[in-house]
Amino acid sequence: MARPPGVSELTLKGCTRCGACVDSCPETILRLAPDGVMLNPEAGECTFCGKCAASCPETVFAETVFVDNDHMAHEMGHVMQISARCFVEAGISCMTCRDACPQEAISMKPRVGGPFLPLLDAAACTGCAACSSVCPAGAIDAVRKDVSYA
């Protein structure tokens, strides 16, 4: 399950589900799950503005370092992963995910006799979900960073 920047399984235990972070998110991509706050990757892109962390009355969000007034420096506990539901599996050309990625973590590999294949660089992915929210096939999911990407 995708969590906002700075939220870990350990800090999530302090979530009282008050909804302050959900209400403060300008992108409206957060929601409350039974175990606490979660990021809804299909709803839009996280801009790392830090308003969710700033509004939380508990210690759910790990210490954050603000780069400037608009952005914070903190990682997500997940990255995005392109699944077999991608249109290229059906022979349909699509580059929406590549075009949407602000980190340019998705490249397109040419193939003979078929559409370009999207390749996601997990090391460059911030987990912002810009790609997932625009994917017409719903083929991009959040996965924990500690999984194998081979």
State the helicity in percent bands.
10-25%
Q: Structural class of the secondary structure composition?
A: alpha+beta
Low-confidence stretches: none
Counting DSSP H or I runs of 4 or more residues, the number of helices is 5
The major beta sheet can be summarized as: 2 strands, antiparallel
Order of helices and strands: HHEEHEEEHEEHE
- Strand arrangement within the widest β-sheet reads 1-2
Q: What gyration radius follows from the Cα positions, in whole Å?
A: 16 Å
Our measurement of the CA-to-CA distance between the termini, rounded to an integer number of angstroms, reads 21 Å
In total, the number of strands is 8
Task: Write down the overall mean pLDDT.
Answer: 89
Principal-axes geometry comes out as elongated
Strand fraction equals 15-25%
Structural features, described:
The longest helix is centred in the N-terminal third of the chain and has 5 residues, at 20-24. With 150 residues, this protein is an alpha+beta fold. It is built from five helices and eight strands. A hairpin with a 2-residue loop joins strand 1 and strand 2 (36-39).
Task: Give the tags.
150 residues; alpha+beta; two-stranded antiparallel sheet; two-stranded antiparallel ribbon; elongated
Secondary structure elements and pairings:
Blueprint: H1 9-12, H2 20-24, E1 30-33, E2 36-39, H3 51-55, E3 65-66, E4 72-73, E5 78-82, H4 96-100, E6 106-111, E7 114-120, H5 130-134, E8 140-144
Antiparallel strand pairs: 1-2, 3-4, 5-8, 6-7
